[in-house]
Amino acid sequence: MAQPLAERLRPTTLDGFVGQEHIVGENAILRKMVESGHILSFILWGPPGTGKTTLAKIIAKKLERPFYTLNAVSAGVKDVREVIEKAKSSPLFSTGGSPILFIDEIHRFSKSQQDSLLNAVETGVVTLIGATTENPSFEVIRPLLSRCQLYVLKSLEKENLLTLLHQAVTTDEALLKRGVQLKETDALLAHSGGDARKLLNVLELVVEADSDSPVVITNEKVKQRIQTNPAAYDKDGEMHYDIISAFIKSIRGSDPDAALYWLARMIEGGEDPAFIARRLIISASEDIGLANPNALLLANAAFDAVMKIGWPEGRIPLAQATVYLATSPKSNSAYMGINKALEIVRETGNRPIPLHLRNAPTELMKELGYSDGYKYSHDYPGHFVRQQFMPDSLNGTILWTPQDNAVESKMRERMTACWGEYKPYKE
Question: CA-CA distances (angstroms) from residue 359 to 91, 168, 374?
Answer without folding.
Answer: 82, 81, 10
